[in-house]
Specification:
single chain, Rossmann fold, about 15% strand, 8-stranded mixed beta sheet, Rna Polymerase Sigma Factor, Chain: A, 8 strands, about 400 residues, alpha/beta
Length: about 400
C-alpha cells in the first residue's frame, strides 16, 4: 500500500486475579499485547484486534525474536491504512490460555511450576473479561471497535454481548454465535490425537518437547477444514508428491502439504494451549444462560458488521447470517474466495474493506493527546438510527 509498517510496542501487563465463569479463580493473570498509535485523553479511540486459534498479538510486521511468524493481517495497521494510527489506538492482546506471553498452561502457576494439567477450563467469556481488565489497565474507557476473525470473531461478539455499553463497533468475520456439532466433531479427533500421544504425560510434559506427533496430526485435521475441498482438489488433485509413489510407500501431494502444516505449527505452539483454546471454541455460545442466541444478539448495542467467506465449510455463511439477525447489525458482507475458512486471512483487500466500512462512519475522536467531547456514537443523518430505536424498545420491554 506504499506505507511503512509501524513498529509495534510489545508489552506484557499484569491484570490481577480473574474469577472464571466456572467460579474458579485464576490468580496473577498476565496478558501480552502489541499496540500501535496513541490513546487519546478521553480514552475512547481504542480499536481491539483479536486473533484466531494459533495466531497471536503480532498482527502486522516482520517475524523476529519474539514473533516466529510475520503479521497475520499485513498492512491493516499504520498511517493511512484501514486502522489509521494517526486516529486510532490499536491494541492486539494475546489470548488468555495461549502461549505467546499471556497466562496459559505453560505459564508458571502459584507453585512456580508450569500449570500443565492443572490449568483450569476457561471460556470465551473468561477471555473477554481478561481483555477488559487489560483495557482498564491501559486507560481505555470506551472501545471504538472490536475486530476479529474465527476465534477472534467469537471474542468480538462476546465483547459486544457481555459489555454492550463499552463497545461502539463490532466486526465479526468468519465466525459463529455458537459452536455447532460439526465444528465440535472436527475438533474431537484433534483433541484425541494430542492426548493419546505417549509424550503428552497427562499434560505435564514440561520441560520436555511434549506431544509433537499428536499436535502435528491435530493441525493436519484442522488445516483440512480451513481450506475448501475445491481449492485442495484444484491445487493438488490426486497427484503424487514429487519423486514419490504412494503405491510404493510414497505420499500424495496433499498429504505432504498437510504434514508440512503440522510441522510448522509444532515449532511455534504449545500443545496444551491448543487443547485449551480448542475446548474454548467448542464451548462458545453467546446464548448460554442468556435465553438463547437470539436473546443474546438483542443485547448488542454496538453497530455490528458481519462478514462471511462464501467457500467456508467450517464457519459457514449460514452461521454468519444467524449473527446478522441481530437488531444492531448494519451490514452482512460476503467475501468471495476459493480458500475456504482461510479466506479471512488471505483475502485481505476484501476483509480490510469490511473493516474500513465499519469505521468510516465511526464517531469522531480527537487526535492522540487531545481531549475531545465524548461521543454518542451517532453521526448526523445516521441511517442506522432505527436500529438504535429498536434497541431502546427492547430495553424498555425488558427483553435486553
Amino acid at each position: 500500500m506504499g506505507h511503512r509498517t509501524p513498529s509495534p510496542r510489545r508489552r506484557s501487563c499484569a491484570v490481577g486475579a480473574l474469577t472464571l465463569e466456572s467460579g474458579a479463580v485464576l490468580p496473577e493473570v498476565r496478558l501480552a499485547y502489541e499496540s500501535w498509535g496513541r490513546l487519546n485523553v478521553a480514552g475512547d479511540n481504542a480499536v481491539l484486534v483479536l486473533h484466531a486459534l494459533t495466531g497471536d498479538s503480532h498482527v502486522v510486521g516482520e517475524a523476529g525474536p519474539d514473533s516466529p511468524t510475520p503479521g497475520w493481517w499485513p498492512d491493516l495497521i499504520g498511517p493511512g491504512r484501514p486502522l489509521d494510527t494517526d486516529r486510532w489506538f490499536v491494541v492486539a492482546p494475546n489470548v488468555l490460555g495461549g502461549c505467546r506471553g499471556s497466562t496459559g498452561p505453560s505459564s508458571p502457576g502459584p507453585d512456580g511450576r508450569p500449570y500443565g494439567s492443572t490449568f483450569p477450563r476457561i471460556t470465551v467469556r473468561d477471555q473477554v473479561r481478561a481483555e477488559a481488565l487489560l483495557a482498564d489497565a491501559l486507560g481505555v474507557r470506551s472501545v471504538a471497535a472490536v475486530v476479529g476473525g474465527s476465534m477472534g470473531g467469537m471474542r468480538a461478539l462476546e465483547w459486544a454481548v457481555t459489555l454492550p455499553g463499552r463497545v461502539r463497533r463490532c466486526v465479526a468475520v468468519a465466525t459463529c454465535a455458537a459452536a455447532t456439532a460439526d465444528q465440535i466433531a472436527w475438533a474431537t479427533p484433534q483433541l484425541h490425537a494430542i492426548r493419546s500421544d505417549p509424550a503428552f504425560h497427562g499434560g505435564d510434559y514440561y520441560p520436555g518437547p511434549g506431544p509433537r506427533a499428536g499436535l502435528e496430526v491435530a493441525r493436519q485435521i484442522a488445516h483440512a477444514t480451513y481450506r475448501s475441498g475445491a481449492e485442495l482438489d484444484a491445487r493438488f488433485g490426486s497427484r503424487h508428491q514429487q519423486g514419490e509413489d504412494p503405491l510404493r510407500g510414497g505420499r500424495y501431494a496433499v498429504q505432504s502439504y498437510l504434514e508440512h502444516q503440522g510441522r510448522k505449527l509444532v515449532r511455534r505452539f504449545d500443545a496444551n494451549s491448543y487443547l485449551t483454546l480448542t475446548e474454548v471454541m467448542n464451548g462458545h455460545d453467546i446464548g448460554r444462560s442468556r435465553g438463547g442466541v437470539q436473546a443474546a444478539l438483542r443485547r448488542i448495542t454496538a453497530e455490528l458488521t458481519v462478514a462471511v467467506v462464501d467457500s467456508d465449510r467450517l464457519y459457514t455463511p449460514a452461521a454468519g447470517a444467524q449473527i446478522a439477525r441481530a437488531p444492531a447489525c448494519r451490514e452482512l458482507t460476503t467475501i468471495h474466495s476459493p480458500y475456504g475458512h482461510d479466506g479471512f486471512l488471505k483475502e485481505t483487500d476484501q476483509v480490510f474493506s469490511v473493516i474500513s466500512g465499519a469505521l468510516v462512519a465511526a464517531d469522531p475522536v480527537g487526535s492522540p493527546g487531545a481531549s475531545p467531547q465524548r461521543s454518542t456514537g451517532r453521526t448526523p443523518g445516521d441511517e442506522r438510527a432505527p436500529r438504535r430505536a429498536e434497541a431502546r424498545r427492547l430495553m424498555s420491554a425488558g427483553l435486553w
